[in-house]
Amino acid sequence: MSGDQIQQYGAGSIGKAEHTGSGDIVAGGKNVGVAEAGPALQALLAEIERLRPHLDTADQAEVDAAAGAIAQETSAERRRSLVQRISDIAALVGEVGLPVVTAAKALLAG
Predict the structure, then answer these.
(1) What is the pTM of this model?
(2) pLDDT tens per residue, the chain (110 residues)?
(3) According to the UniProt entry, which residue ranges have a biased composition of type Polar residues (predicted)?
């Protein structure tokens, strides 16, 4: 809520805890319970970065939005949907998109 005043004391204080409805809890401005990006996700993000120069502006925006949401996504179904969106775009650009598709499959398998 706007206008809340929070006073906190001590080393263990986290401030106000908020739930935004997407499965995450934000406490003291930091996400709690959201997994760190694992190696499969890091590999996918690296391949996406290599793919970006081969995409048009609209596809870049679509891939960037999906890639930005993947790391914070806690729902397996929603994460799969985002990865699928990226894979579909990567597949359309041909051979240069194959490393993205491979990395996406590895992420979903893990």
Answers:
(1) 0.65
(2) 456 666 655 555 555 555 454 444 445 444 444 445 589 999 999 999 999 999 999 999 999 999 999 878 888 899 999 999 999 999 999 999 999 999 999 999 87
(3) 1-10
